[in-house]
Amino acid sequence: MKNSTTKIPYQLPDALGHFGPYGGRFVAETLMQPLEELRLAYERYRNDPEFCAELDFDLKHFVGRPSPLYYAKRWSETLGGARIYLKREDLNHTGAHKINNTVGQALLAKRMGKKRVIAETGAGQHGVATATVAARFGFECVVYMGSEDIQRQAINVYRMKLLGATVVPVTSGSKTLKDALNEAMRDWVTNIDNTFYIIGTVAGPHPYPAMVRDFQAVIGREARAQMLEQEGKLPDALVACVGGGSNAMGLFYPFIDDNGVAMYGVEAAGDGMHTDRHAASLGAGRPGVLHGNRTYLLEDADGQIIETHSISAGLDYPGVGPEHAWLKDAGRAHYVPITDAEALQAFHQLTRLEGIIPALESSHALAYAAKLAPTLRKDQTVLVNLSGRGDKDIHTVAAIEGIKV
Amino acid sequence: MNRIDACFKQLRERKLSALVPYFTAGDPHPDTTVPMMHAMVEAGADIIELGVPFSDPMADGPVIQRASERALLHHVSLKRVFEFVRAFRMTDSTTPVILMGYLNPVEVMGYASFAAQAAAAGVDGVLTVDLPPEEGAEFVAALDRHQIAPIFLIAPTTPPARIKIICSFARGFVYYVSLKGVTGAANLDILAVTEKLKQIRAASSLPVGVGFGIRDAQTAASVAAVADAVVVGSAVVKQIEEHGAAGAVNAVAKLLREMRAAMDFGRLG
């Protein structure tokens, strides 16, 4: 008999897409068979040498991978404590991690013979990343975006239009990311025969959470190898922001079995966790069903989904990927809140000390790293996923500071 | 025999199809919900499908989305919906009532509590749009304990093997979604519907209802010719939206009377 203490490697989700009680496939019947076809196509191609070679080629030559792992020396020394490394996803083509996933799903769409792709977007980064691959592969592209977000992210809206995408404003509900997702689902159910829905985060019905995680896991695989190369050891802690949670899941996943590596997912605390203006579904929500999966949700006593708030459109979402829900319950990852004000402070600090303007989403991760690093020794390391660059947020930051750009 | 089975048995004897109107509870105002239900029965409805409002009605088109938003302005919760059904049952003990909605409000209440309260109020069936049989075993068991029928959807994309699985979970009737899309979408293709109904009838002896895309008396009649039940949602809700609290009940009753007459034309012995 084998040693019973041998650790079983992490291998979620199960066959039906469950991460413990979370995940699954909660959609109207019309979508069940198309989701099963998508799962079968993904299972077939994920280990197909030709598919993998094409994906690797595109990640290298189109996206610009591997992204650097950068030791933020001045910032680390200013904070005093652990050495902070930044995984530079902001240097990817289109300026964020989102492109890793859209390239993967576009290659899958091509193999499935779909001619039209649709997407939802919050900050616009996933919309831009989808419009980008659509332009490159010659797909028709429609992006759903909350009308509130369209106001906040005018530059990304124009980028999508330049790339040939149709941007459809969503005016229902809270007019943000969750409503854009509803609308994209409605489009998909109507145009199922010719359309591939490129979901941008690790949420939605099975197989999306696992598939998007797998496409984003290139972040963690690279970072793990780069850390071993530069430091000769694994990091002591990982830090990434969590809205839906794709950049965090991409970073965390290859480290899940490394028990010495702590994981921190940083949620948007908006005006503060003592107010009702935040977007911390893991910190303040409870399990429920939305957008095709069971996960932690921000909802009222009747089960109606409530409006969220964050300075960053990309974190302004009342749910979270089901695998994060599971990692929270299992105690493997910790989820912590960072307010708008704290994120803004980190935004400025990194810009001034390292010459890197981070996205407001990523600034949440940076702000938590700035709290964590001083509690650790100088020979310890913290790896932060710098998931996107801040160009798109310049107007938001300027407006807060009363400056007209 | 429960109310749904009794209703279909009685209709079958008369060679008629059921007229099943849908509207969202609390739309346009909570005060009109129970009078609307009674008016529907009077105008010829056989079963009432009462929508439970939800903040994120992913499977619904704009008409029913707006109905949900109007109802939520009045904070119509599941508990409130049970109160409507209980009030309706004071004077109508025979017309089946089916709740249609999304899973999350039910999850919050808990399956066992939901089923017990629904049964106590006089609910006969529950259709949870975003709960496929694969995820629904526990919920179906909770409904079974209170003799409430779980109603499941079958879609144009559902393959034959899956139709069998769905029918094995379903009670009361199965609901065929006549087109790929959201509620209130384009016109249905009656030939395609007839073809699919053959597959469903081969898999199950349950009555088959057809919904999505039935907008007037004519489409209602053509569906009634092939289906056991005709479900009318957006067309009803559109009347409510256009006429508001003052005129909605009369406008809906008029639409249903026209549908009833067209469906029964030439079939009444």
Name its key features:
heterodimer, A: 405 residues, alpha/beta, 6-stranded mixed sheet, 4-stranded antiparallel sheet, 18% strand, B: 269 residues, TIM Barrel, 9-stranded parallel sheet, 9 strands, globular
Summary?
The complex is a heterodimer of chains A (405) and B (269). With 405 residues, chain A is of the alpha/beta class.
What does this structure look like?
- The complex is a heterodimer of chains A (405) and B (269).
- With 405 residues, chain A is of the alpha/beta class.
- Chain A is 43% helix and 18% strand.
- Chain A has helices at 29-46, 49-63, 73-79, 98-111, 125-137, 147-152, 154-162, 177-190, 208-216, 218-231, 246-252, 281-284, 322-330, 340-354, 360-372, 394-400, and strands spanning 18-19, 22-26, 69-71, 83-88, 116-121, 140-146, 166-170, 195-197, 237-241, 262-270, 286-290, 292-297, 334-339, 381-386.
- In chain A, the strands form three sheets. A six-stranded mixed β-sheet of chain A has the order 3-4-14-9-10-13, sandwiched between helices. Chain A has a four-stranded antiparallel β-sheet with strand order 1-2-12-11.
- In chain A, helix 4 (98-111) packs across helix 9, helix 9 (208-216) crosses helix 11 and helix 10 packs across helix 11.
- The longest helix of chain A is centred in the first third of the chain and has 18 residues, at 29-46.
- Chain A is globular and about 55 Å long.
- The mean pLDDT of chain A is 96.
- The two termini of chain B are 26 Å apart.
- With 269 residues, chain B is an alpha/beta fold.
- In chain B, helix 4 packs parallel to helix 6 and helix 10 crosses helix 11 (234-264).
- Chain B has eleven helices and nine strands.
- In chain B, strands 5-4-3-2-1-9-8-7-6 form a nine-stranded parallel β-sheet.
- Chain B is 52% helix and 14% strand.
- In chain B, helix 10 (217-224) links the parallel strand 8 (208-211) and strand 9.
- The interface between A and B is large, with 39 and 45 residues.
